[in-house]
């Protein structure tokens, strides 16, 4: 009960109980698809994810790609003609496909290296990237940007504990990408860390 009260204080009554229903539904799906517990957290309990949806929709993109999409909670709510999600978890991808049977979201098992020769209005990668070292992530983004045309990049940073790596995107992304907007802080549920969401825009052609 104390966790529910804390959630109500953090995100409000409506999102707490709407998220609780989705959480229970995801637990039922977990018995069939066996995905990681991390994916049980519904978007209603993650204000940063809802804000990503809001900001990306405001950009009115035609194509959106996400690496580390999980069950597709973010992509599912984005309005774009082309929506493609990648995740290393085959079980999460299978469940995402089940949840989106009637939509046009495309899900594939994999990561950054699967994205080649695409014109991408908005690229999203949050949470997942904190398991990758900054040096490796810099190389990954350099390759991704070289092989694709990307206008906006949406990433997150977390201060404090709870994650293996903490990134300075000004040092990671090529200089033609400049910070357009920073959202947050959002308090994480697991500890006292704070999360920020950053939107970078390609300013040079």
TrEMBL record:
GO terms for biological process: methylation. GO terms for molecular function: methyltransferase activity. InterPro entries: Methyltransf_25, SAM-dependent_MTases_sf. Pfam families: Methyltransf_25. Keywords: Methyltransferase, Transferase. Residues 64-144 form the Methyltransferase domain. Transmembrane segments: none annotated. This is Class I SAM-dependent methyltransferase.
